[in-house]
Amino acid sequence: MSGFPPPPGQGFPPPPGQQQPPNNKFPPPNHGAFPPPPGAAQPQPPGAGFAAPPAPTNQLNQVMGNMSIQANQPPQPGASFAPPPPVASASQPGAPKGPTMFTPGPPPPGAPGGAPQMMQPPPPHAASSAPQMMMQPPPQFGHQPPPPPAGMQPPAPRQQPGQFHSQGAAAPFYPQQPAAPQMQPAPVAAGGGMAAPFQENVDFSIQIPERLCLFTTNKIPQTAGMATQCKVPVGAVIRPLAPAACEEDEVDVVQPGNAGIIRCKRCRTYINAFVTWLENGRRWRCNICAQLNDCPSTYFCHLDEQYHRRDRLQRPELSKGVVEFVAPTEYMVRPPQEPSYFFVLDVSATAVRSGMLHSAASAIRQSLDDLPGRGRTKVGFITYDNSVHYYNLAPDLSSPQMMVVSDLKELFVPLPEHLLVNLKESRGVVETFLENLPDMFAKNPVVSQSCLGPALKAAFTVVKSIGGKMCVFQTIQPNLGDGSLKPRENHALMGTPNEVKLLRPDISWYKDTAVEFSRQQISVDMYLFPYQYMDLAALGELPRYTAGNLHSYASFNHDKDGPRFEAELNKNLTQTTAFEAVMRIRCTKGMRITNFYGNFYIRGTDLLALPNCNTDSVFGFDLAHDEQNMSSSVVTVQAALLYTSSDGERRIRVMTQALPVTSLTTELMSSVNTDAVCNLMSKQALELCYKTTLDNARMRLQQTCVDMMRAAKGGDKRTVSGYSVPPGPQGQSDGEEKPIPENLELLPLNTLALMKNVAFRGGTDVHPDERTQSHHLLNTMWVDKSRSFIYPRMFAIHDMEDAAGLPIEVNPDDESSDHFAGRENILLPESVNLSVERLTSDGIFLLDNGVEMNLWVGRSADPILLQALFGTNSLENVDMSHIKLNTSGDDVATRLGSIMQALREDDADPFVISPKLNIIREGDARMEARFFWYLVEDRASFQGGTYSYAEFMEFVKNPGGAGGMGRGPPGSMPPPHAPQQGMAPPGPSGPPSNYGPPQAPPPPMQQGPPGSIPSHQHAMPPPPPPMGMQHVPPQQHQGVQHAMPPPPPSGPRLPPQQGPPSGGYPVQHHQGPPSGGYPQQQQGMQHGMPAPQQGPPSGGYPAQHQQGPPSGGYAPPPGHRPPAPGAPPQRGMPPPPPQYR
Q1: Measured CA distances, 528 to 468, 523, 781 (Å)
Q2: The model's pTM
């Protein structure tokens, strides 16, 4: 093949010994493109544009080669925007062949994007002079003729030796008719460096809606050195199927025409609003790889004066940041399958007696009418204990038939049909099965035996031909057959660097099974109900690699947890779900995607396999420089999700956004989105935690915050070739610091809160299963939800204003949503700081972290208020397990119920799930210790959490200083003989007990405010007094207005307080070494208050090593039998654990 030009930015090397002529000249541009110079035609790179499509295989990523960019290496830096060097004629002897590294990837069968190129014959050789039509001025705008048919293309000129061959990428646009041809040398950067960034004509007002994608920064550092210096986590969090709110537009759906879906022939990027159109619309340059592509004649349109297509507003793919294409048949490996839902239920004694089986059957039965797929939906069931039970659900049966397979080693399917049936046809049999399921195993349940592994293999055999969603319900640790787990809870590892071993799976069976499930398009959702250690680290591999979700309900109680579990299961089954999905993310040459976060399995290097993707699926990724200096002024990121809808339609959701490149540090730091940064930082820290230790993860969070604040205050620095140089005469001096940008004021507070979060906090009081559950939550959490999970909100209920809890009129211009919540704009009470100093014995406080709610009740609370909320005048000597919150019947109770409901409502989400509520009575040491975990502004006694918010702010502002009060950085522990002001000395180190610390009788809390902070306009901690101010005991708070505080002003740290401590209650001492390196201190109380050196507990009271109930246990389920003689001791009774969903 001859006559085709090489890819842009590349040319054919001259033959050996041939020198480049010094006075080579360019022919005249033609609307941004160089016409081919006279001379011999270029040899076509082998296979370019004519590669045969790959044969279909059973691997979806192989068939999705049209989305792949792996087969094609990116062009060399800067080559796309400068004319290539001279090449030798193809007819010369010894001339090397055209390069093959830029051969475009094979399009799918019948790929419309490549059809026009494939129909064009090679241009014949012509005379040495260029054709006259190529030298004529371009026609005026509005009168451009469409491109000639493929068979009538003008002949290409023969290229003479020593002449440049150009693709037009380096030619600027001309606002008017270009002048006569001028001979110009090729632009070369001075000193052999890179050329100036190519200026794109980009409309930055075209954005992806924030509900779908949030970038950590709206600008990209120009150099890799600048990115390293600023330490900004450059990346994004994406939620591809997020529902639209009432006032938001739905995603436009595009039905491709005769030209099909237009894509780049090299990198397979989808046509988008940021491509550059050339030659009056005949060609377009890819904004990812800079490849020039021909526009199909059926897709052609003229350009306007701004070099934009005249029909761009009528084409969503050219005018919007997100669009959805209806995929043609070449994007299908097989016909779209029916939506399938398969349920694998544990029917052991624990599952039956706890009420889990009853709740699961009830939720499934209520969801049957709303399952996606209409009349195409299929369902199936398997139950298991020490054997596997299949169910024949044939439509001609009056009741289901159960078939039991007890041989777990030679497992087989007893019936080839009617195990997975059409719901519409077998509706009666399915409902009969669900109604009888809770009673089928109630008489003689199997105790403490579970064959989860064989049950999963049996379910896989039934579903593998179709795929779909598999819901697994488990109450005890699997101990039979494949996948059986051994109890490996080792309390000696808690609080040590080796604790991370408990967070990693010790067997690979579940990961290997999950990978096989993913290949067959099966997604697994795990619903776990642990009453003792279950090893969530191993079981969580199933949802992690199959794009599923992990739900844990520790110490499940049917009355309290049943409604919430049923609501979450109903949402998971009935929400919008994409099946057989894959996603790929591309970015502009010069940048690369380095890491992905979320639940998925990576095929190859960058194809995310998602058997299921729903409205709650969240993914993150990092952007890093692939070159030292960016050659373009714009970076484009495109994410494409190919999936099958529940209606059986194959679709491609394409999200594209362009980000400007900046060389100024101030511009970069001012464009940072703090909430998105904290969300991505948490996901990065989780990866580091699994690879190293929890301490390293906390130190990474801390160091990232310090580096970002230093860069924000340092101002702009001139750089040459990526190196900093002294500022110019008018530049800012090195010693002068700028104030912290407003958008970064909350970064230190959120970082400190994240370090003290249950996912990363140290100490010995966090159960391994609870920590694993929090890791799964953070890994799949959207930005809005992570904001509350990292820094919860606490409201004062006892003194809320009369309008709180009632709907209000909201000004459309009011961008602050901290004062109201919910669809009806319910007014929220005033927020208070997350510090024990804000708690008062006569108060009631509601704390919400987005996952669960905690209601702290002081022992001197108003009896009238207690009667309205709990139906009793006092909570003293009352069994808290029988206390329920009233949300109706009284004005205060009704308004509180409206507030709690509004905090869980989302305008875009039709599902509202009532949160789990923990009622904490003042003096209940077990429950209060967990409540104090959320008071992140106080000190904690683990490495990395020893600073209060004010002290951490001072460390961030002056990381090289003394650290305040004679201590080192927050990550270090205090000296062994330096008592901590305002901190209660922890007790002896020991294992955590049932997701919570053991009891320790505390003294009564003082009456009135124990050192409250003065009134402030923000709801989070006010700044400490500036330098030189004398500390004044704070007064009772008068209310706050906003949900977040500004950082404390600069100045020295506050002197040790002599008044009430910042902590809660002293801990009773036991024999044994002190925890966390703190010395034991003599307890003392004056007038019912702890000694001045005491403070908030470290998130819990370590348990004492003793015989009896071992730690890590859960409350036994109803009907639990005592252990047999010689059996290991039973787990102790726990407090109600936190619920994570």
Answers
A1: 20, 16, 19
A2: 0.72
